[in-house]
From TrEMBL:
Domain of life: Bacteria
Stated name of the protein: DUF4126 domain-containing protein
Keywords, ordered alphabetically: Membrane, Transmembrane, Transmembrane helix
DUF4126 domain mapped to chain residues: 55-224
Gene source species: Comamonas avium
Record field: transmembrane: 42-62, 69-87, 208-229
Entries under Pfam families matching the protein: DUF4126
Amino acid sequence: MNNVWDSILQWLHSVGLHPNREAVEQAGTAVLNSASDVATTVGQAASGMDVASLLALAAALGWASGFRLYVVVFVVGMLGATGWMVLPGGLHVLEHPLMLVASGGMLFVEFFADKIPGVDSLWDLLQSVLRVPAGAALAAGVFGADNATMATFAALMGGTLAATSQAAKTTTRALINTSPEPFSNVGASLAEDTAAVGAVWLALTSPAVFAVLLVVTVIAMWIVTWLLWRFLKAAIRRLKAWMGSNDSPPPPALPKT
């Protein structure tokens, strides 16, 4: 652990900050203790899940996947891999080392790509074909193959919620990108990072509270998407152009001679 504190201290010195070692260790220990307390709370909540709690988790995974798929996959996988949470149903695949490496790598790329004006919209367009089916799959995975009826229902719910959040994200980002300054992009991206992790945490610890907030949030997203529909249509046109789609009518046939 001393090597870790030494590395952090050297990095702080390299950026012009010069705290003493004791202060760095105290701050780091406080952060680790807080993370451990949160993980313990989540683990205790997940260990005794009923059907309502599982549905809340499925809804959280689907909704959050609509704008932060790799955060969801990596965070849930890490909870299972570290033993802080016993993953239900078919979510055990998320804790496999290869899955953690892949989702962690994509999370690293997305974290920065999503905060650069213009690049964020392009990234959203590229990811839009993955987030909805992935949200449906994650929601269905909560129940696994042993409960086909609930898994099917969860998949439909998760896919719908993922499509809702994806549409709201795309429209709001298209609007934000009409402004040249980058700070609104960074702020929106950080808010989405927090919302994705917070949704999973709240679904595990307070399913009823999460359900109420989810209903309010989804209604708000529908309203935002409707009000900003023209921005969504512009984003869809850019996606079609990027994929080589051509909606122009075919040329008229030449008259027969």
